[in-house]
Amino acid sequence: MSETRTGIAFAARGITKSFGPVRALRGVELELRRGEVTALMGENGAGKSTLLKIITGDYQPDDGVLELDGSPVVFAGPGASRASGVRVIAQEPEIVPHVSVAENIFIGSLGRLGYKRSELLERAAAALDDWGFARVIRPELIGSTLSPAQRQIVEIMRALISEPEVICFDEPTSSLGDDEVAILFAVIRRLRDQGVAIGYVSHRMAEIFQLADRITVLRDGGLVGTEAAADIDDEGLVRMMVGRDLTQFFQREAVTPGEVVLELIGVSNEFVDDISLTVRAGEVVGIAGLVGAGRSELMKTIVGDFPLTAGELRVSGTARRFRSPADSVAAGIGFAPEERKAEALLLQRTVRDNMALAMLRKLSRWIFVRSHAERALAAEYITRMRVRTPSAEQIVGTLSGGNQQKVVLARWLATGPKLLLLDEPTRGVDVGAKSEIYTIIDELARSGVAVLVVSSELPEVIGISDRIYVMAHGHITGEVPSRGASEESILALAMEEEPTFS
Ligand SMILES: Nc1ncnc2c1ncn2[C@@H]1O[C@H](COP(=O)(O)OP(=O)(O)OP(=O)(O)O)[C@@H](O)[C@H]1O
Ligand SMILES: [Mg+2]
Fold it and tell me: ABC transporter domain: which residues (predicted)?
């Protein structure tokens, strides 16, 4: 593509789509222009992913048309758009587990390429290098060993090597670290300069304003409007998305903490080294750090997923050693892990079942009383967290990504633990629900729960916690009070090469 063409490369016009009683899209319009990034925004369940699946041919619209270069097109089945140069980077890429990154990247063209392994590896290495990903992924790695970020990169490379005319990303950065995000943004800018038409879904405002030329907003399956990014600010965008003003970013008020609920003394294992920390009743303690710093591993070590090789873990003053997460639940510890789908949800069960799951012990053993209590609980959290679902009896697997996360979180928030561990609690969650989650965490702490929260979003971790431990390379590199903490000071600790103490 030497010369940059302009104009509308792809359009979706009057798109309507229902799933049974759920009207996922109602007469939506989206235009993707050559050499531009069009952001697609809206609350969880607004219909963004559904629209992208219609663009690929995975779903057929009930009404409306797709246009490629101004002419109507029909993409008749899953992935049918690919042949026409229209690619969508899925939220959850499918990776073949037993073969290499190289084979995974060229999976669509293995037949044509003749499948010579050394040649594939070479081609993959060259492509990864060309697009800047060589630093974070190697072509000979095996599919099953890939991190979520690497899986996402494979999915992106698959699209790039096909030289698409139109490319859409569905929350691509939700599984990427800062490093990988920077590479992805460079990729997107390069595609834009080449004249590719780009669609971009994200809940992160900062990204939108860095990348987007135009912003299309959906609400409840309907089109709110499209604005030039230069003509709108954060607040205006939030108002378009949620249809109301949101209160300013959450800032937790100072508290007087109670007894020490969790204490780690020199805890070490394969993943973390010499970790000492405390969390008191009524306190919200943040853990910041870059991807790979060992934050999630630390949480899993606390709940007994990974054994300790040295050090001591105390809960309310008593030395404990959990052999499994079930053990830690029994000790009053709630844990909402990062990979919610894989680790935490029963996708085939209802919203109510999933929310009640962690409470079985607490709810009455009388079936009748229990189902009543479950229903009340589900109703409360569906309302509070604005879970977009037709009812509590909906199968969780059919909810939008962000709404699934709210269900997992509701479950742990409702268990009434004395210690709550939250790993990236607002990842993939829209702005309205985020502020509700902050409020719930704050209320839990006020009621005496000790909360330990991992978050990659610095404004978030500063806003919701009382103190922050910063991790790098499996160590704690520093501890800072949240009041007055700057993003820069935390980043400096997060990027430290070696710990300041041993
Ligand atoms: N296969 C399905 N069966 C039933 N309902 C579905 C299905 N797919 C999507 N929906 C519903 O359609 C609506 C739109 O979902 P969609 O996944 O498009 O939202 P989204 O805007 O991508 O949200 P998020 O930001 O949470 O990813 C939701 O109410 C969802 O529950
Ligand atoms: Mg989605």
Answer: 10-245, 255-498
Residue 250 is predicted with a pLDDT of 67
Specify the length of the chain in residues. Answer: 502
* Distance in angstroms (rounded) separating the CA atoms of residues 223 and 195: 26
Nearest residue to 418 via CA among 351, 320, 350: 320
**Under 8 Å CB-to-CB from 430, ≥6 apart: which residues?**
42, 43, 44, 46, 203, 241, 242, 402
- Whether the CB-CB separation of 381 and 410 falls below 8 Å is answered with yes
How would you class 21 by CB atoms within 10 Å of its CB: exposed for 0-12, middle for 13-18, buried for 19 or more?
exposed
Which pair of tokens denotes residue 464? Answer: 């919701």
Q: Ligand 1: which of 17, 30, 50 to mutate, judged by most atoms within 8 Å of the beta carbon? A: 50
User: Which pLDDT score is estimated for 53?
Assistant: 96
Q: In a 3-state reduction of DSSP, which class is residue 355?
A: helix
Ligand 1 atom with the smallest distance to the CA of 91 is 27
Neighbours of 305 (CB within 10 A): 18
Ligand 1 center to 24 CA (angstroms): 6
Q: Where are the domains of the chain?
A: 8-95+146-242, 247-332+417-502
Provide the sign of the torsion angle of the four alpha carbons 44, 47, 50, 51, taken in this order: negative
Q: Which residue has the tokens 């009543």?
A: 372
Average pLDDT, 10 consecutive residues per value, the chain (502 residues): 66 95 93 97 92 96 96 94 94 87 86 73 95 94 90 94 95 85 94 97 90 95 95 88 65 84 96 96 94 90 94 95 87 83 75 77 59 84 86 89 84 83 88 82 90 90 93 94 86 73 45
The dotted CATH code for 8-95+146-242 is: 3.40.50.300
What is the C-alpha to C-alpha distance for residues 200 and 209, in angstroms, rounded to an integer? 12
Which atom of ligand 1 lies closest to the CA of 47?
18
Whole-angstrom distance, CA of residue 391 vs CA of residue 318? 43
- In whole angstroms, how large is the CA radius of gyration of the chain? 23
Residue ranges near ligand 2 (ion) with Cβ within 5 Å: 49, 400-401
3-state secondary structure of 331: coil
470 φ, ψ (degrees, to nearest 5): -110, 135
**Topology alike, domains 8-95+146-242 and 247-332+417-502:** yes
Predicted confidence at residue 343, as pLDDT, reads: 62
- Homologous superfamily assigned to 247-332+417-502: P-loop containing nucleotide triphosphate hydrolases (3.40.50.300)
